[in-house]
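Predict the 3D structure for this chain.
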Amino acid sequence: MSLNRVVAITGCDSGLGWALAARSAREGLVTVAGMYRGSDTPAAKALEKLRVRPYPLDVTDAKSVEGFRDYVMSVITDNPRYKLYAVVNNAGIMTIGDYEWQTTNMIESTVNVNLLGAMRVASAFLPDLRRTVDGSSKPRIINIASHCGLHPLPALGPYSASKAGLLAWTRALRLEYWSHGVTAVAFLPGGFIGSSSIMSNQVALGNAMLEHLNEEQKSFYGKRIEALSKYLEFASKDTNFDALKDENIIETFVKALLDENPKELYKVESWRYMFYYNLLKLPLPEGVQHWLIKKFVNFPEGV
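Done. Predicted structure below.
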């Protein structure tokens, strides 16, 4: 049955998206991978060897999203047994830095990719998903969210806001489409910074933050920004496109993808994530919350 199911996934150039596309194909699903860097890259070629179909996609561009949707539907038209089964909104970006440091472009880009990009893709595909409902399987939208959407963290304000919005919107979609046989699912993969290129531009972003501040702000924040950039430099290097090997993350995603009646939320939590995020749910004094968050984030002194 899986051989007839078509899955479209965004943000597949590296890290989580590449791993999800590869695993989807290995599960026997017809997989189309949206690639921001295009379909002529080593990452795209490696996916092609797994019988994934890479296609250029910029989720911030309505015409690009429309072209991606049209390509997915042409695959289905050319193969009458195929049916659109799932759309996975994985494309995402993250900038680390206090809200006042971030440029307007950084803030707007985070929301544009992480939340509005997912909405553009869903708007393009939801009518098609609704029309595929036949009782044999439950078509679905899977939105890749974050623990930051459950509890915001300092230096991740716009990112946390975009992911909190994504979670709220996923819940609304699930309620709206329940009677139509389509469902919406949120997937929280937990931490995997070392296996992703999501922070590859962090040093350049830190320099841009310093550049756009006025003299008073530079005097007040300059040393903190420089210290944070230096601390994050280790995570700011491009990793191999296939670096993510965490089977717990991938297997949990497979459940969200293939469960006959998927839950609203699937999440992967290390013991550290579980410990801190459960503590932060408690009605603790604000000072205690600040202390816990500082311990969890674990930035060096002076940041």
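The chain has three domains: 2-197+239-268, 201-237, 274-303.
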